[in-house]
Amino acid sequence: AYERRFPTCPLIPMFVASDTVNEYKSEDGAIHVIERRCKLDIDAPRLLKKIAGVDYVYFVQKNSLNRRERTLHIEAYNETFSNRVIINEHCSYTVHPDNEDWTCFEQSASLDIKSFFGFESTVEKIAMKQYTSNIKKGKEIIEYYLKQLEEEGITFIPRWTPPVACKSESSTSHPRRPVSPAINIPESATKEGLSNKEILNTSSSPSEPTAGTPDDKLDADYIKRYLGDLTPMQESCLIRLRQWLQETHKGKIPKDEHILRFLRARDFNIDKAREILCQSLTWRKQHQVDYILDTWNPPQVLQDYYAGGWHHHDKDGRPLYVLRLGQMDTKGLVRALGEEALLRYVLSINEEGLRRCEENTKVFGRPISSWTCLVDLEGLNMRHLWRPGVKALLRIIEVVEANYPETLGRLLILRAPRVFPVLWTLVSPFIDDNTRKKFLIYAGNDYQGPGGLLDYIDKEIIPDFLGGECMCEVPEGGLVPKSLYRTAEELENEDIKLWTETIYQSASVFKGAPHEVLIQIVDASSVITWDFDVCKGDIVFNIFHSKRAPQPPKKDSLGAHSITSPGGNNVQLIDKVWQLGRDYSMVESPLICKEGESVQGSHVTRWPGFYILQWKFHSMPACAATNLPRVDDVLASLQVSSHKCKVMYYTEVIGSEDFRGSMTSLESSHSGFSQLSAATTSSSQSHSSSMISR
């Protein structure tokens, strides 16, 4: 079915032609490698094509079919402008190791723009647009050719068998490879009308979303392999919570393993789990935690003096993290780096822990969703109880507890000194009860006796500083030189820089006091884009247009509501004397957004002038028949304390000159958008259109 898209494919209009450059077939017919030069008509502005001096772009694609291992690997790279732009793409079709009726599809790509005549940002957006469009069409194209084969009477292709002379292994054998679980596809496949034998699975980075499993039941093999023992009730909670996320969060949603952590943290109370999971997703999005391992490099001070690191695994296969807290100069680290840098480093450790859990799940063939932490307190003294250091520790615990529940499988505290009870008294109230049950504390050398370290860690990997034979590469810590200390002012500025690296802003919305954002548009047919999360309460989202500028923004007096708002501002632009229809007009229908929803969308502007984005408190409607509120409405209104809502938002304006008539599937160059206007247009027939996605 895949080969039928060559030499050209009517379903891909930009794919104009292709020529075979090289071709190889093995003697036994198992291997078939074909390399093609593909001609593409990229949907780019005519001005950009003229500047670049090309009408078409050429890519080289190499397809490697291995019938013995039942795999198809596809590699592609750009030939045109290869000295300015580097594009690499890798795709693979493989047989799922646990169900031979499933085909797994994995795809990844990289884009590196070195220079492009000053149009680097435009080229990046065009590339994202084309790539997103290709991903969306990939499954549709395969289904088209599968159906074409069926119409020709081809419904089964016999498995390849080696010639008799070289038959040295079973024709049905194939290596089992650790592959991302394909069980998540059947739901979407069912919706598309596919049978189980035609299922394709798309998986990418560990943090990217996968499609859902069947509505009524998860596959038993999948549960055993990746999730662990689940009762029917627990399985139902997982499916319901994931379906809700898919409906309300049009972007990345966690994998089943991570959703389960939040359910387990709240004893499978789906409402409580949903609340903390939504808060965590918003937090991750705001601070771009998904990218912390790729984009943030720890300062050298941390690499030299933070006495912690990963060290093999315990007897249960859990990743093992070793922390020599007693050898660490917490005061020196806080004075040299500040609280925020330490917090970010701990977050990177947790993200690495999640990644290692996935790796160990594949290696050991059973679900591993947590890690073991070994804390050596040898050397702990009153210096470690320095107040700012304890304050930083408590905040780190609070953030980790809220966003990484049920990730700590076991905590082994060794060589606890006499001062430890003081530290424990300070921190234990901030630790969840379920987490505290996983703590094992050993004083002196008790860890060497029965019930000690050997019960949990193999003798071969016990670190040398605990009397073992395994060299541990964890830094030894030590005192941070005072020459590296920073002033309070420097630390404050650095902290602000570190933790405000976000494109999102927070705002509070009150009953009678909406939050409004002003956007001035000079050129008609520009595109206003937005991305916001409703963190608390229910709101109504509106877009207005005015020919005249409103008065300078005024901040709402929060005293009138008897509420302080440290987490967000409240700005009102529309004057009380303005009349709708006379002074300003509504350009989009009001959108009611519920608490926990993530909303993305865009609006193609029809006129120049001033556009106002408004988030307004949503009041529950009364029952029409009796003019009395319904019981459900009353209960829901009680959940919004003091009539206050909170939103986290980002807006961007994209000029019309580069994207006139080609807005389909455009994605913003910022990370905040999961989808941007899948159906907008700026043609003369339809000047204004928008699309809201949750």
How would you explain this protein's 3D organization?
Residues 167-216 are annotated as: Disordered. Residues 500-653 form the GOLD domain. This is SEC14-like protein 1. The protein is α+β, with helices and mostly antiparallel strands and 694 residues long. It folds into four domains: 2-152, Alpha-D-Glucose-1,6-Bisphosphate, Chain A, domain 4; 220-287, Helicase, Ruva Protein, domain 3 (Orthogonal Bundle), CATH 1.10.8.20; 292-483, CRAL-TRIO lipid binding domain (Phosphatidylinositol Transfer Protein Sec14p), CATH 3.40.525; 504-550 and 569-620 and 642-666, Jelly Rolls (Sandwich), CATH 2.60.120.680. The protein is built from 16 helices and 24 strands. The chain has helices at 46-52, 120-151, 186-192, 220-227, 232-248, 256-265, 270-286, 292-295, 300-305, 330-337, 339-364, 387-403, 420-427, 433-436, 488-499, 631-638; strands at residues 15-25, 31-40, 57-66, 71-78, 85-95, 103-113, 200-203, 308-313, 319-323, 371-376, 408-416, 439-443, 505-510, 515-521, 527-536, 539-546, 554-555, 571-572, 585-586, 591-593, 598-604, 609-617, 644-654, 690-693. The protein has a seven-stranded mixed beta sheet with strand order 1-2-3-4-5-6-7, covered by helices on one side. It has a five-stranded mixed beta sheet with strand order 8-9-10-11-12, with helices on one face. It has a five-stranded antiparallel beta sheet with strand order 13-23-15-21-24, with helices on one face. Helix 5 crosses helix 6, helix 11 runs parallel beside helix 12 and helix 11 crosses helix 15. The two termini are 33 Å apart. Residues 166-216, 556-567, 622-641 and 658-694 have low confidence and may be disordered.
